[in-house]
Write a structure and sequence with these properties.
single chain, 30% helix, 337 residues, alpha+beta
Length: 337
């Protein structure tokens, strides 16, 4: 080991830090050649004390710089020779190793060569006493320019004389209201016959006046009294009026209109009643007596109780109490039932 003047600190560092590696030896050798020979460096004796102190201070400073430089180089060599520690795995890599994310399984539907069609139906509204409208396909209604309430009721004026609902129920006024249920095939035949007239190729604006109203698939047509029989609308009107469904039965609605009113003299208006005129009944003994003079919608359990007091629907009755007379009538309410 080479000693430098006053280099006791360097002796300790060099003894513990220099390793027998090629790079360390070359660097250390360069700094070792700062000494002379293999022993101590002989310094000349100064001529006087001041010069000696100056030269000594210079040598001491030089030695200190050399020691600091050599210590720094040795420290760099030591750090460079120490193998780097492997970096600790991050939290992300640990999570990937311990809890791998499963690959989602995608199920692809298999398309069959012949898919089965799913039938769709329009929602139907539940009929109530407030006459919530039910969706319908065809309806025919006649509107009069006048007339009394009783005649209007019995003739079904301003109420559908023919109405076919989307669920297949058909209600017609033929000697009273009758109803049946059409099959889908019967509905298709009826609609095809209507379409064959060419009406759907015409605009609704061409049929904006008349008392006979036809509604088909949401479109409204009015038949004027002078419409020629060759017109598509007249042909449709003829199809609807003459349609003869099977298995018609008496129709009992879920609600109806009941009107009861008093008349002062029977003979003066009797001739205006529809014929034949029904027999006069006792007013106080009739179950209708409890309703009094009314014009109201009857629904629920009261419907069969009221309708059983008549021979038909629509219909009317005449009652007597002393010298007072009462007329009671039941009429269809629209929309049905």
């Amino acid at each position: 080991m080479i000693r430098l003047p006053g280099d006791t600190h360097f002796q300790t560092v060099a003894q513990h830090s220099v390793h027998p590696t090629g790079g360390s030896r070359r660097v250390f050798g360069q700094f070792a050649r700062l000494g002379v020979g293999s022993g101590k460096m002989e310094l000349p004796h100064p001529a006087h004390q001041r010069v000696t102190q100056t030269v000594g201070q210079f040598l001491a400073n030089r030695d200190m710089k050399n020691q600091t430089l050599i210590a720094s180089v040795i420290a760099i060599l030591i750090v460079s020779c120490v193998p780097a520690k492997p970096s600790a795995p991050t939290q992300t890599s640990t999570m990937l190793e311990t809890t791998p994310t499963p690959t989602p399984i995608i199920i692809t539907p298999i398309n069959t060569a012949s898919p089965i069609p799913t039938p769709t139906f329009l929602p139907l509204l539940t009929p109530t006493a407030t006459n919530t409208q039910r969706p319908f396909l065809i309806s025919y209604t006649y509107y009069s320019d006048g007339g009394d309430d009783l005649s209007t009721c019995l003739q079904g004026v301003a109420r559908p004389l023919f109405i076919l609902y989307e669920d297949g129920e058909l209600i017609v006024l033929r000697n009273g209201y009758k109803h049946t249920t059409l099959s889908q095939n019967e509905i298709n035949v009826l609609l095809n016959n209507i379409e064959a007239t060419g009406l759907f190729e015409r605009s609704e604006k061409e049929y904006s006046e008349g008392r006979d109203e036809l509604m088909i698939n949401g479109k409204r047509y009015y038949l004027a009294f002078d419409t020629p029989h060759s017109d598509p609308l007249w042909k449709v009107f003829d199809i609807v009026i003459n349609f003869q469904p099977e298995n018609l039965s008496r129709y009992t609605p879920e609600n109806l209109l009941l009107e009861i009113y008093q008349i002062d003299e029977l003979k003066s208006i009797e001739r205006f009643f529809p014929q034949p005129t029904p027999d006069i009944q006792n007013w106080k003994k009739s179950p209708l007596h409890e309703f009094g003079e009314v014009w109201q919608t009857i629904s629920g359990e009261n419907v069969p109780k009221v309708i059983d007091q008549f021979n038909n629907f629509p219909d009317f009755r005449i009652f007597q109490e002393g010298n007072k007379y009462y007329v009671a009538s039941i009429c269809g309410s629209f929309p049905f039932p």
